[in-house]
Amino acid sequence: MNDQQQVTTKPKVTSSPDYDVIVVGAGPYGLSAGAYLKNLGLGVRVFGEPMEFWADKMPAGMLLRSPRDASNLADPRSAFTLSAYEAACGKKPSSPIPLETFVEYGRWFQTQLGSDLDRSNITGLTRDKSRFRISLSNGEVIRSRRVVVAAGIGPFQRKPAVFSQLTPAQVSHCYEGRKITDLAGKRVVVVGAGQSALESAALLHEAGSDVEIVAKIPALRWIGMHSWLHHMGPISKMLYSKYDVGPLGISRLVATPKVVHHIPLTLRDRIRVRAVRPAGARWLPERLKFVKVSVGRSVEASKSMGGEVQLKLSDGTERRVDYVLLGTGYDVDISRYDFLSPELVADVQRLDGYPNLGAGFTSSVPGLHFIGATAARSFGPLLYFVAGTDFASKELTSYIRRHRASS
Ligand SMILES: Cc1cc2nc3c(=O)[nH]c(=O)nc-3n(C[C@H](O)[C@H](O)[C@H](O)COP(=O)(O)OP(=O)(O)OC[C@H]3O[C@@H](n4cnc5c(N)ncnc54)[C@H](O)[C@@H]3O)c2cc1C
Known about the structure:
Structural class: alpha/beta
Helix content: 25-40%
Shape: globular
Strand content: 15-25%
Low-confidence stretches: 1-8
Bound molecules: flavin-adenine dinucleotide
Number of helices: 14
Distance between the termini: 41 Å
CATH topology of the largest domain: FAD/NAD(P)-binding domain
């Protein structure tokens, strides 16, 4: 092997301890945590393409379900809010928020991290004595005392086995970024009754597809249909938090993740499942008025028949369509993060696929933290949403500040 070959095949290992904290992922959680950690004066670096999941995996034209107050990324001075972004670029505040505005907002927010952001992907993460060894997509290897995993839900798509016979040209999950406009004029079955499924069905219909929604639940549900409940001044404030996650009564509890963390797991799970049960935003019933909806049934078999897809439903009927879009949600399972070494995953104490987290979002591996959806089993459903970035960033940085000397 000559010198030139050695340079290209050997990873470049830097010798210093490198970083105090590195953050995996530059979505709302990673960017917010980065802003807070930078403010502590630590050696911090956030890795990932800013807002990639929102820009590339969500359907163009989508509207955010979360209200404006629940759609701010978090920074220590609250200087980089959605409203601040709109004011800075002369944009009229809109509600609901278009996806494109939110992506631009996140990227604007990111600029305040400056050189503390690196667009490389993390390809490997292992424990190396009291440090973490982190491999980057550019071939570099760095070390850090702490790692914050803010890598989102991308790898957790739930794809029911019944669709495994279909080709990628015939089926995809809503989070895979299939262009809605590519399906114009096609017959599409959308499976599911949550926001992703229903919003995708509306966009497909508007793009000229012949759409049918197939859902297990007996009737579609809508969120925020009793808007008067939100307009009763102080009474509404008692009933709902500004984040608007979860129904009346539960909403305020969900807004205090620290309290939720202390609730016994069985009850905490019930609150979580109830708060995020499948439902669509209030603007969708009107847009879905002319879309066929088949509720109370599921797809029991699927087959590729030439260019067509044949579906057998639980009510005994059949469908022949061109494409199936799965709005079937996701199952958090950190072993599906391909950058985490299997040894590291094995060392993380888990509740099913979720890490079991303590104060400061710490896992059972010292120095390894998880924020975002992976933290929802420990801290409740607010952590599934952008609204949880404020709590997560504060709790994380306060813990790291307190344990600075020991790390
Ligand atoms: C269709 C849909 C609609 C939604 N609507 C809303 C809504 O209206 N309001 C709301 O609050 N929430 C909504 N959500 C939930 C939303 O996904 C989360 O609120 C939000 O994305 C959480 O941010 P995050 O930073 O944890 O994850 P993400 O936004 O997914 O960011 C994680 C980032 O990490 C990056 N990453 C992953 N692995 C690596 C790696 N190895 N190296 C470097 N980078 C990596 C990914 O590319 C990704 O960009 C919606 C979700 C979906 C699917």
